[in-house]
Amino acid sequence: MADKYTDFVSRGWGRDLAKRLGLPQPVTLRRHEPGAPLVPGPVLLIGAGPGADALETALKGWDVEVLRNLGETHDGGAAATSSGVPAAGAGKGGARLGAIVLALDGIARPEDLSGLFLAAGRPLRSLAPSGRVVTVSRRSSTADEPALAAARSGVEGALRSLARELRNGATGNGILLAEGVPVDAPSALGALRFLLSGRAAYVDGQFLTVGTAKGELPSDPEKPLAGKVAVVTGAARGIGAAIARTLARDGAKLVVVDVPAAGDALVKVANEVRGTALQLDITKPDAGERILEHALHRHGGLDILVHNAGITRDKLLANMDAAKWDAVIAVNLAAQLRINDALLASGNLGEGFRIVSVASTSGIAGNRGQTNYAASKAGVMGMVRSTAARLAATGGTANAVAPGFIETEMTARIPLGMREVGRRINSLQQGGQPVDVAEAIGFLASDAAGGVSGNVLRVCGQYWMGQ
Ligand code: NAI
Questions:
Q1: Lowest CB count within 10 Å: 61, 79, 90, 133, which one?
Q2: Do residues 171 and 287 share a domain?
Q3: Which element (helix H / strand E) includes 306?
Q4: Are 176 and 245 part of one and the same domain?
């Protein structure tokens, strides 16, 4: 879908005018291109200790130039560098930084934050367009001493604020390691790679939590889903079609599902991704059995299920009727529950089964006129947390992505004024593309994300409302 404003302020006098009037100046985001470098320049790695050393080894293994900075002294003195990093953090020949990674896994008290975050301050000015800031720290828990919990929680506030200061398509995100998970656990490195890459273009101000379950890095990073069979519901158009294309690009065999009325469009998508089409209303009582039967019969298995199909029936609660409320819950939530139950009860799923559900930021921040929709999407988040626990024994995971404003037919129907506001009220000052949601799902569906379960990952450009 076109964003004419972004085209207008991207060049010539439109750009000058926007600058003079202080209007939003969104830029074209760096997105995944097969074979492109992971980051658009060297990575400045801030922090000392075994965690930082392990991150340096991993980054170098991905052919990234690494500059080290051990953190500023507490009196605000000169940066203590271990490799002669210029104060502003530029790489060889003055190249702009592709990313700044903060190794914060060893912090113990709030005072430990200053030297590490302040060391990132000036180098932020040298960050390349669509550069990245990624923190790697430990999740705080009620078992932590208060000072330790405070320090760990402090990271989240600092990172979210730092992300709001970035410009030119740069983003800030973090990884929260559960106790006992090493910095270089496969899922921690998988999450780091995802957040640094163009795949995470519209993920901003977010944290991925990595637990103790094992993940596995792919032998070919361009084909992380090779050999997997994936089902995507609501795949005839919009975000669902983008998910199907992205998972197929990453090596998966696809079953695309949509209502019979969308049959022609569905077949086109199926042909494009060399997959098979299943015309099915997911609210049918036997939908789970039919999906499983199709996947087993046509592809010999089922590894990934993406619950994407969704509808809106917006009305203020004062004007809402039961038909509108019930239709939204039936498609967006009840169908997912019933299909999951059927699949989990079947005994036909392999180890490491992946469920990824599409939620919405409306389910987090709430949205006027969407009590029914927000109930369904918040319900999806509760469902994946509970399902994650059920799948853990077999190495399976359940996660959700919560898109913000994505440029689709659904959002193209919003009246112009509201649409303009909706797509600008985030740190990247633009709507996301369907592929941005698809890339996040691709990561969560991969073996690398084996340690990531029960997460809700927002793909919203750091929407102003809700966390
Ligand atoms: P869309 O309306 O363009 O596509 C939804 C697809 O689901 C359609 O092809 C439709 O036929 C299918 N579908 C609907 N009911 C079905 C049923 N009972 N059985 C099988 N298929 C069914 O919507 P869009 O924008 O692509 O959204 C996809 C998902 O992303 C939805 O869950 C939506 O709630 C969610 N979302 C979208 C956002 C956006 O900005 N577009 C923002 C946040 C979440």
A1: 61
A2: no
A3: strand 304-307
A4: no
CATH number, domain of 47, equals 3.40.50.720
- Assess whether the C-beta atom of 262 lies below 6 angstroms from ligand 1: yes
Domain limits for position 189: 39-210
Query: What is the per-residue pLDDT across 201-248, written as a single tens digit (0 to 9) for each?
Result: 999 999 999 999 999 999 999 999 999 999 999 999 999 999 999 999
Q: Which of 5, 202, 373, 463 is catalytic?
A: 373
Tokens of 15: 């750009």
Q: What pLDDT does residue 414 have?
A: 87
Same domain, 199 and 233: no
d(CA 251, CA 249): 5
Whole-Å CA distances, 174 to 108, 157, 244, 432 = 18, 11, 27, 20
Tokens representing 281 are: 């209303």
Question: Is the shortest distance between the CB of 258 and ligand 1 below 6 Å?
Answer: yes
Ligand 1 center to residue 316 CA distance, Å?
A: 21
pTM of the model: 0.95
373 as an active site residue: the answer is: yes
Distance CA 145, CA 367 (A): 37
pLDDT recorded at residue 23: 76
Sheet holding 304-307, edge to edge: 276-279, 253-258, 229-233, 304-307, 354-358, 397-403, 456-459
| Ligand 1 atom with least separation from CA of 432 | 40
The reply to whether 376 and 450 lie within a common domain is yes
Asked if residue 367 is part of any domain, the answer here is yes
7 found inside a domain? no
Q: Same domain for 147 and 248? A: no
Distances in Å between the alpha carbon of 225 and those of 219, 432, 443?
10, 23, 9
Say if residue 159 is in the same domain as residue 291: no
Instruction: Collapse the DSSP code of 170 into the 3-class scheme (helix H, G, I; strand E, B; otherwise coil) and give the result.
Output: coil
Ranges of residues in the chain with a pLDDT under 70 are 1-2, 73-94, 467
Task: Report the C-alpha gap between 407 and 67 in whole angstroms.
Answer: 37
CB 96, CB 40: distance < 8 Å: yes
Domain termination site, one of 210, 238, 255: 210
On whether both 158 and 239 belong to a single domain, the answer is no
How many other C-beta atoms are found inside a 10 Å radius of the C-beta of residue 111?
Answer: 11
What's the domain count of the chain? 2
Mean pLDDT, the chain, rounded, equals 93
Candidate of 408, 411, 458 to mutate for ligand 1, largest count of ligand atoms within 8 Å of Cβ: 408
